[in-house]
Amino acid sequence: MTSIARAPTTASPSARATRRSARRAATTPSASANEERTTSTFELERVVEPLIAETKTLNEGIAKFYDESSRVWEDVWGSEGGDGTHMHHGYYRRGEPVNHAKAQVDMIEESLRWAGVREVKRVLDVGCGIGGSSRHMVRKYGCEAEGVTLSPVQAARANALAKEEGVENMAKYRVADALNMPFEDGSFDFVWSMESGEHMPDKKKFVDELARVCAPGGRILIVTWCHRTLEPGQSALEPAERVLLDRICDAYYLPAWCSIADYKALAEDAGLVDIETEDWSEEVKPFWKGVIKTALTLKGVIGLLKSGAATLRGALVMPLMQTGLATGTIKFNLITMRKPPL
Ligand code: SAH
């Protein structure tokens, strides 16, 4: 299904070393403009890497990464005019002044508008972070919300924020794996996954699980990072593209990527209907420049150093997201679909 075969994020040190030399070898002249920009961070990544504690499984790595980095994200990014509760890209309208805090809320609003969501009774926030999106929906629709994350720190913070906002009876967060969720079949009329799909090692199981917990007639929306859809006759991305994605995967604890065409096929296989896809790669482009600028402030640098080596490596890799979006290897995609009514 996915077109990138890669070693898991939890690879042994020797496997990592093999991948490192493969990356060097795969740096092609045609990619030189972008590669030059990222070579210096490449070396810094290698300096930081030995300081990062090994984790045994992908899920353990994801949990630890968000346990360590969520607070600095909330504090540093939140000091830029927003509340720091949104760990996703902004949606930037062409011609409007760049306002990152507004753009992140606009991402939620535009996603709901695009998917045609008008009312919600019970939403599931899959890969909820600290629950910014679902509490927004609780306020907007007066609905109930459940959220799942792998990070105990995030679940606790999301519940604390719900309490602070007086919506703890409406919005509840817990630690659970999106591939095996503790909910009955058909429990939610809206299933929302904002920038968590890229962490899922089994995309088929992911889509099947979202379909299972969605009520008949209900809607699913996945907003996620994808790689570009392959051209006819292509069986894999170019070597330099794979190197780029591998570095991002290591830093952000991501398994193999897929394209939005792959997601569409999975949704069809799951028996879902009214499937629509969209590409907002242009609309999100100003985001990383803003994040990098904030990370480079004194507060940002101190926060990163305090959070630990994995968070620091995550910050070093940020320019690669810019490169991937600029070159078209990385796509910011949406897919929405419905579960057929009974
Ligand atoms: N949707 C949130 C957070 C995005 S960050 C927002 O927009 O603010 C990615 C989130 O996905 C993190 O909370 C992480 O814990 C979660 N995640 C990744 N893999 C997961 C899995 N297998 N099960 C549950 N949550 C997962």
Keywords for this structure?
13 helices; alpha/beta; single chain; 7-stranded mixed β-sheet; globular; binds S-adenosyl-L-homocysteine; Rossmann fold; disordered N terminus; 342 residues
Strand order of the largest sheet: 3-2-1-4-5-7-6
Given as residue ranges, the uncertain stretches (5+ residues, pLDDT < 50) are 1-34
Helix proportion of residues, in percent?
40-55%
Task: Tell me the β content.
Answer: 15-25%
Give the N-to-C terminal Cα separation: 30 Å
Structural class, judged by helices and strands?
alpha/beta
The quaternary state of the protein chains shown equals single chain
CATH architecture: 3-Layer(aba) Sandwich
Q: How many domain modules?
A: 1
The succession of helices and strands, N to C, reads HHHHEHEHEEHEHHEHHHHE
Main sheet overview:
7 strands, mixed
Apparent shape: globular
From the alpha carbons, calculate the radius of gyration and give it in angstroms. 19 Å
Tally of helical runs: 13
Q: How many β-strand runs?
A: 7
> According to CATH, what is the class?
Alpha Beta
* Ligand inventory: S-adenosyl-L-homocysteine
- The CATH superfamily appears as Vaccinia Virus protein VP39
CATH topology annotation: Rossmann fold
Mean pLDDT, nearest integer?
A: 88
